[in-house]
Amino acid sequence: MRLQIRPELMNRGGLLSGVATYAMVDYCMGSTLWAQTTREERIATISIAINYIQTALEGEIVCRSELDRRNRTIGIMKSEIRHEDGRLLVTAVGSYSIFPDRRLKPASAPAPAPGSGS
Predict the structure, then answer these.
(1) Do the Cβ atoms of 16 and 4 come closer than 8 Å?
(2) What is the pTM of this model?
(3) Which residues of 4-28 are buried (b: 16+ CB within 10 A; e: fewer)?
(4) Contact assessment for residue 60 and residue 84, using Cβ atoms and an 8 Å cutoff
């Protein structure tokens, strides 16, 4: 995922806001995990630990995420954001809940035939 640094993404100190990079990491991690789920699964962020190593003032930043491991109910993600010049700006590790889509109704058993005594 790529993002062009714009004035509205800067904090009061004139630096790229951590809020913008956090949102970028969460979106990129979620999109990466979403590609690994089934139609019946949904995901939600549990937590993200983020390390702000450097910042940027202009240019483009790129976030890359990868699925580190998953089981039936949890996915663990890793991300990094780099500036277009190659500098590492952010590293992150996130955990995501994986759960069944509650809007999908389980297949119901067929109704008993009339007069079957059920």
Answers:
(1) no
(2) 0.83
(3) ebeeebbeeeeebbeebbbebbbeb
(4) yes
